[in-house]
Amino acid sequence: MSKYLSRHLRHQPERIGIALDANGWVTVAELMQAAAGHGFPFTRAELDHVVAVNDKRRFTIDGPRIRANQGHTVEVDLELPRAEPPAYLYHGTVAARLTAIRAEGLRPMDRHHVHLSPDRETATRVGARRGRPIVLCVDTRAMHGAGHVFFVSANGVWLTDGVPPEYLRLPGT
């Protein structure tokens, strides 16, 4: 169910006929009706359970509305305030991506921002989704000092527009 919600609240709301507002919200009733109409019915109790126990806290319910906390490929403004990051944050990846990362740094690709984790353990879990994980350390203190902007989402994921290679500590460096 979490994957279904992510697909439609972050990437393809139109696929089931819902429209996110400018800030990524849709009513729970509209989401449930659309999901049921597309062969994926669920109860409000099931939805509340998935939101409450999701290990990455991907979603927020606020009264009658729900949205994904970050990771959108559709245009939304999550209205996240700027935040001063800790000295270091982490990014989980796999070896196949290291050549491009060394050359270009971390880019958001289809998403709005690069996602950074507050600790190595979380970054390891993120990287492990695509194979054997490699954890990169990001010198966010230096980045922030150089004028790069950071945000932190409701679920503790740190976001920035990109990470130039000079702020990355790659394995073996």
Automatic annotation (TrEMBL):
Keywords: NAD, Transferase. It comes from the Bacteria. The keyword Lipid metabolism does not apply. Gene3D superfamilies: 3.20.170.30, RNA 2'-phosphotransferase, Tpt1/KptA family, N-terminal domain (1.10.10.970). Pfam families: PTS_2-RNA. It is an enzyme of class 2 (transferase). InterPro entries: Ptrans_KptA/Tpt1 (IPR002745), RNA_2'-PTrans_C (IPR042081), RNA_2'-PTrans_KptA (IPR022928), RNA_2'-PTrans_N (IPR042080). GO terms for molecular function: transferase activity. The keyword Membrane does not apply. Removes the 2'-phosphate from RNA via an intermediate in which the phosphate is ADP-ribosylated by NAD followed by a presumed transesterification to release the RNA and generate ADP-ribose 1''-2''-cyclic phosphate (APPR>P). May function as an ADP-ribosylase. Belongs to the KptA/TPT1 family. This is Probable RNA 2'-phosphotransferase. It comes from Streptomyces albipurpureus.
